[in-house]
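Data availability excerpt. The first of two example chains:
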Amino acid sequence: MTLGERVYRALLRLYPTAHHRAYGDLMTQTFRDGQRDARNQGRMALVGWWWRALTDAAMTIVIEHLEARKKYDMRNLFAKTNEPGTWPEAFAGAVSFIVYGTLGILFAVNVANGIMPRLGPLGWSWGVWIVLIGNIATAVVLAVGWIKGFPRWSYAALLPLWFYSDYLTTLHIGGQPAPLTGIRAWLPVLIALGYALLRTRSLRSLWVFVTGIWQDWSRLSFLLYGFLAVVIPLSGDETHSAARVPLTIVAVVFMTIGAVAYVRAESPGQRILALFGGMMAGSISIFLFVMPYWNGRYESWMQNPQPTLDTFSLVMQAANVLIGFALILFSPVLIAGIRRVVTRHDLPN
């Protein structure tokens, strides 16, 4: 064995163990053949060949270690996506539905008298306090999710937190001006995520957030499902139906159950059913008072009255909306198809 071959064999040990075991002998033979051919062409050819061999080895060692680390992370992440969440995790996944759902219920109870009592030393209306408390609770969920590497249960917090943080900047309740404007409305988000960033001292969780969706597309569906926490309080806006309070409560309960069932599910199929069931039951509960209320209705602020539809037309209109919701909610299934094509392409022939 030549000195050059001994050096190259030592260099091969810098590759990941699995790669070295699988390809070490083949790479050594390739090196031996290349060195022999270069030596036959002269000293300068041998020096050039050694330079290419060393630089190529240095680059591929780094690349193979990165790939090995990525595969290890993906295997662990994929294993975790198939484990059912604990009850505390299920509660964390349902926080946005609980807090913002409570806001919707309180709005429904209070809409009859149209008065938003002002509470606390700041003189804010209770509506502002509920939204702010909801933002703080949801921001805590998102921060804990960041620290833990964005588990499945943390995805639903993103959209409602973003929406209501922006909503607070222009919120007018009971004719009162917005008490929080600009960056003040975003303080719960900034503080929570700032703390998470200080704890982890890394942006790697954002990469895990994305790769988590790549490995388990239902996470993106759960993220979209979280926007239903926005729909609950706003869906009955300007309605004064007697059925609004009980049906809003029913919608909140169904959507919360869907979130809990998703986190607790043990298989992708169960997760899909959990989200579909929560979305359908919650949405139908809202439609039962919203659609009849506005059917043919005329308010002073309207330019024209709403069209009057028969029962069949109302049902078909609701069905079209539900189909649209379902298509949006489960559109991430396309990720599974893309992933399957990419996986097949990467497999050796």
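And the second chain:
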Amino acid sequence: MLLKPNSLHEIRGDSQANRHPKADARMRSNGMAPKQAQDPATRTVGMPRQGPAVFAVLGVFLIFLRLGLTSFGGPIAHLGYLRSEFVERRKWLEDAAYVDLVALCQFLPGPASSQVGIALGALRAGLPGAVAAWVGFTLPSAAIMIAFAYGLRFLPDASAAGWLHGLKLAAVAVVAQAVWSMGRQFCRDRVRASFAMLAAVAVLLWTSALAQMAVIALGALIGRRLLPAAQADDAAHADFRISRRISTLAWLLFFALLALLPLWAALSGSHALALFDSFYRSGALVFGGGHVVLPLLRAQVVPAGWVSDSDFLAGYGMAQALPGPLFSFAAYLGAVSSGTPHGWIGGLLALGAIFLPAFLLVLGALPHWNQWRTRPALRSALGGVNAAVVGILLAALYNPIFLSAVRGPGDLALALAAFALLMFWKISPLWVVVFAALGGAWLA
């Protein structure tokens, strides 16, 4: 008696479950594995296609190289580019999982957008994929910043050039836009807004890197106590292909370098070690990404006499015109530093030092991510940390950026015009920087 199938699902989907065992045996003898039906409820987010590992790593590098060449707009814009590429287009992970990953990277010290990229590279191809993602995303902007540093050495009276002063005014507009945007995003109620103002006052009156650390720690405590606990969405787990052994080694190396590098640099008297230590500590202690690292880096390189204040702000203004992570600014600072090494060797040394803490922290956190993301207390603490970051950035906008760049009514007018182009006309930062440089040359 013939039975008529009730649906196409019975013919195509259930045929795998009803396949004769001898058919499976013949497939295995020919080196083929029988297909197994996968329960959507147990699917792992971001499961990559199977293939040779070297091609997976190369694919990650090429994807992030393209993003490194085209991702203008700063850290917040970078997170949007990454979401569009890997959530909407490539489906490496679900939206809820991506939002939680961004929250984790914002909670960790370092550049959040680069850390998200490192995590996505690990999701696709493990530790080699994480390295490939960072190299691809960082290479274009780092190379341009080192080339810019060499250009300054050959330009006569470059530090007094009007177009370089225009770059400083562009930095005023870009950081002001970051304060405005982050304030609207992270200070949506009176508690967060009030703490951001208090954080700005504290950092302005207590001018040291320790003040920023204290403010951020206090923000986490206030967030934990006063802010409502946010619930995690029920999203699939993500397999980041990083073992707990690598996680433990990464944590140990992070804290060992943080504790021992200052002592080693002091005992050896080596400028290279001192440079590496300064940039490593800056990368290890900054919360909030590229803009917030400005006061930390300035405190490390300007008072020590390695970089002049004028060259520092000119390079920071130039960095706004480039795609990719703002932490690539470190490559410029290492290249223009007065000690040995400098040039491209100093640039690579500073670049590696400032990104190394972010790399170690992400590798240390990823194996625990699926557990941490379900804890509402951590989400509440993150709300307080983000408010503190807004306050620190507001203080940096005033000192040193505004005080060092705005010297008269013409400078203020140019900075306000650049800010209006960014905020209200939505002009690309690249063209705003070009506009400010031309305006600075005209005012000179």
